[in-house]
């Protein structure tokens, strides 16, 4: 299986907080890191949607494994539905979100979430 690393799938950029303890994170992270050179939740969502759409629009990309971090995955999900129910049930390590891509509408629909207890 070919491997390609895409910066568009990385986790949220935390600006000067990058690499620091998560204990420093505020409760509402949606726009907090922008003032420190990081991204907002909406920016992460737009980046993830753009990157995943570009991937799916390539020839011979009907089945794709895209790997990212939980926060970025939640922001991606937020573009298509309210993520609260999924978040309420937990996002574990190696959690797999299975989506269907509509080529004509250029939209993703969540089909299932597999949670692993790693």
From TrEMBL:
Enumerate the SUPFAM superfamilies for this protein: Phosphoglycerate mutase-like
Record-given protein name: 2,3-bisphosphoglycerate-dependent phosphoglycerate mutase
Instruction: List the taxonomic lineage.
Output: unclassified sequences, metagenomes, ecological metagenomes
